Each structure stands twice: as C-alpha cells, then as structure tokens.
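Weekly modeling sync, notes
Attendees: S.R. (lead), two postdocs, one rotation student

Agenda item 3: backlog of single-chain predictions. S.R. asked that every request posted to the team notebook include the full sequence so nobody has to chase files. The rotation student volunteered to paste the first one in as an example of the format we agreed on. Action items at the bottom.

Example entry:
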Amino acid sequence: MNYHIGTMLIDENFDGECGCPICRIKKRVDQRLTEQYLGEGVMEDHTRAEVNKLGFCAHHYSLLFAFRSKLGLGLQVSTRLNTVKKEVVEPKNLKSAKKQAENILKLTDTCVVCKYLDEHMVRYYKTVAEVYLSVATFKKRLLNTQTFCLEHYAKLLEYSGYAGSKQKEYAKDLYTVMNKSLSSLKEGVDEFCNHHDYRQASVQLPQNAKDSLKNASAIFYGEENKI
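Predicted structure, as returned to the notebook:
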C-alpha cells in the first residue's frame, strides 16, 4: 500500500454495523483534529497563523466551545479577530463596499479544522480502495456493509482508481451495497406513506418503515445530521 495512515479505523468501522462506516471514521478523525486546537500547540506560531488566516466554521467553533477549558479557544478567537477587524473599514464608494463584502464573505467560508479534515478523509478514501486491492477478505466485509451516505458513496467511487486492477470489481461492489440500501429504504418509506391510508390503519407498521424517514436523513446528509 502506498498510504500509511494506518488501517485501524477502517478495520474497526467496516464491521457490518448500521450506518455509513465512512461517517464513523470521519467523526473519529474530526474529534482528534478538533482536540488539537485546545492543547498547548495552539500557542505555536504556525498554529496561530493558520487560525488567524482560516478561523473556524460554526460546527467546529461549537465543538471547541463545548470543552470545559475555553482559554485555548479564547486565545485563538482573539487572534482571528485581528484578521476580521482589518477587513472591516469604512467604505469609500460602491466599489470598495463590494470588495469589502467579497473579502468578508471569504473569511466566513474557511475553517482550519475542515481543511485538515478534508485532507485526512481523502487519504481514507484512497486507503479503503487500496485495502480492497490488497486484502482478499475485505471484499466480504465491504459487501456486508449496511449502507453509505450519498456523499461518502460518491467519494469512494471518485477514488476507486486506487483499487488498481480491481477498480471495476470494487466500484460494482460499492454499487451493490448502495443500491440494496436505497431499495430497502424506498420500500420502508413507501410502506410508511401507505400506512397513512385509512384502509391500512389496522396493519402494524414494521420497524424499518417507522425508522425510514430518520434513515433517509442519514443517507441524504450523513450520520452526523441524522434526525
């Protein structure tokens, strides 16, 4: 394998459990990266410079704020405000007002944790494909996967070339998992809808139909946004 980020999280999360295994991997990586911005490292010059430049998105700001110690966050917010304050100036004319608006919108569209999280996840998309190529038993584990969210299914397909000579087989197996999941979900949603017909009032609604709208939210938007 060309990538050596370790396959522990892949091994742990492709275990046949419900939900998208890539979502679970992303959650673990996200937690680890977020915690790094509360340690002593936040005082290092390069870290402060990155936070000053990129800031945090609302999601990661909330995660950082949820920790007991808020000094690290406070120091980084103070640093970030230096950048924000420089952009907020009195507009001289319409052109300068539009330019300032453009610059401020750019400031609100970046996050230092998201930057590294995206980089880590790309390596995982590649590594899953390489594990499929190099570990014969992984095919069975992949096919036992219950589902993927749409975003991570697309990402795995995008990087399926890293499965090398098994790319076509790998992509087909990804499709098999996703198609089975969507078919089951559609069946559950349709049964849920049909149950609201008065003629079906006495019929007990099965659990997969009861949970179908919640499960749909996880497939559409990822496990972290599941209702």
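Discussion: group reviewed the output briefly. The CA atoms of residues 54 and 115 lie 9 Å apart.
Action items: rotation student to repeat for the remaining queue; S.R. to check formatting next week.
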